[in-house]
Amino acid sequence: MIRQVKGTRLKAQNYPLWFKLKRDGVCNPVTHVLKVIGAFKRIGWGFKPRPISETSPKIIGVKLKAQNYSITFWFKYITCTLRLLPFALRLLPFALHLAPCALCLALISCTDNIKDTKSVDKFINKMVTAHQFDEGKLNDLFQSVEIKEDILKKISKPAEGMPWYKYRKIFMTEARIDGGVKFWRENESALSAVEQKTGVPAEIIVAILGVETSYGQKTGNYRVIDALSTLGFAYPPRSPFFLGELENYLLLCRDEHINPLEPIGSYAGAMGMPQFMPSSYRAYAVDFNGDSYRDIWHNNGDVIASVANYFVKHQWQPGQAIVIPVNATGDAYKTALIRDLKPDLRLAKLESLNVTISRSLPLNTKVKLLAFEQEPLGQKPGEELWAGLDNFYVITRYNHSPLYAMAVYQLSQSILNKKGKIP
Ligand SMILES: [Ca+2]
To answer: By C-alpha distance, which of 286, 266, 284 is closest to 275?
Structure first.
């Protein structure tokens, strides 16, 4: 255990990490990172940024002295980037001994307990007063919750920031189309029953599952509670949204008798085959097979019915078109390209901007003009124009991106075509 603390320097003669390295020869980086973090927490040092020297004021960290060896850990605020470096060349043999460990530490995703205890206390208070949760149990629960640095990296680079021609390639693959046909055949009766009852086409439900999780193959690798807590407590730009989802999550765990530490999901806390956020699960998940559980992880019937219910509750229009290709001449159409996704223009108005639609619709139909960036040919970037209808807007309620909705639509059509061709 650490015996003494002086300023930012720790005398760590019996420091657990050092002993572990020496004794075992080969270190287990995960254990060691957690031990280091645990040790700092125990002495109440926290991770307050402090300059390690006059000459490198931007670098923060703490220097540990352990007999003849120095090990430097660098902590970058709460993100806890951690590198293990040999301190001096004269320690080269020892440094070589440590090298594999340093590499491991650089490669693993670093975990950390929650630092922002004020926010956690506030959140727990809310759960206690608004929903009658047990304060002690919530305190215990959040002791086990981890902040994940790699989640903070991923949230800042969503795929929806790509141009369409790159985004499309992620989803429009033979494997995903074939997977859709296979999933459809294996779940034909549930899909038919749900389509008949709700009017949501089977190919749209299948394509949603294809885009979200490759039909349940990739449902995420993070504990949902870690994902929601990381983004709720350590990602200020979207903190209110994710704290709301964390609240919903704890409520759904209580209602469904789930241990909150168990469910696994995406880096953003989306769960199961349809990747429902907790608020969506509570509002839209349904039990299809009648066992009174809404199992969006394992029960395909429940999954299919839940996706369809999501669309029904967002006003899916049975039998109506989704999105239609259009052509434009001149530049007048550009005035209709604004960011909002809701159909905002009567077809008659769109045609007055020299846009022609490839399918006849009543002139008072409301549409949304959308441009999708194509692979540039030479100097000139190209774009494809489409008119989105109400049902296209409904798909964007699942993920607020025109790229997402277009990928779902095009994948649905490819699956439908391929299924039709295979006897
Ligand atoms: Ca069920």
So the answer is: 266
Ligand 1 mean position, distance from CA 217 (Å) = 20
Mean pLDDT of the chain: 78
Query: Domain residues of the chain, as ranges?
Result: 4-113, 117-156+218-296
* 247: annotated active-site residue: no
| Both tokens assigned to 295 | 């199992």
pLDDT at res. 112 = 60
CA of 292 to the centre of ligand 1 (A): 6
- What local confidence, expressed as pLDDT, does residue 116 receive? 64
Asked if the model's pLDDT at residue 11 lies above 50, the reply is no
Mark out the alpha helices in 117-223 (DSSP H runs): 117-131, 135-143, 149-155, 164-171, 174-186, 188-198, 202-213
Per-residue pLDDT band at 177 (split at 50, 70, 90): very high
The two structure tokens encoding residue 104: 């491991």
Catalytic residue, candidates 146, 149, 203, 212: 212
Write out the E strands in 25-106. Answer: 62-66, 69-73, 84-86
> CATH homologous superfamily of domain 117-156+218-296?
Bacterial muramidase (1.10.8.350)
pLDDT surpasses 60 at 168: yes
What is the per-residue DSSP string for 198-211? H---HHHHHHHHHH
pLDDT of 247 strictly over 60: yes
| Dist CA 176 CA 206 (whole Å) | 10
